[in-house]
Specification:
Strand 5 and strand 6 form a beta hairpin. The protein has 3 helices and 10 strands; from the N terminus they run E-H-E-E-H-E-E-E-E-H-E-E-E.
Length: 128
Amino acid sequence: MPKTYQTIIAGSGPAGLIAGRHLKEAIILEKKGEIGRPVQCGEVISKKALSFQRITPDNQWISSKIRQVARILPNGTSVGEFHQEKTGYVINREEFEKSLAQNTKCEIMTGAEVINIKKLLAAKGKCR
């Protein structure tokens, strides 16, 4: 009999893995064969973002510390909200994602690409 999940998370990037830390009856479906590989993008994270998610910086995935961050578009325009706390880290994205995966409460299935989503009717009415 197929297992039923309350929540299905598509993708095991930082957002999916952080959601998985909070959801017990869920599954993360990842089309890649391995968590963290290949690295997709973004190997910098602010100290504030980690703190907000209650993630303790770990030397296993921190490559170096940053004292100030600025996001600048190719046309020279600076974007994003700046905080008083401008420090952050250059991270090893592969190790960072693997660390997040170790702290998930839900199941993770690699090599599982989401190709279709269907809205099903529940016994007591429509699912939302």
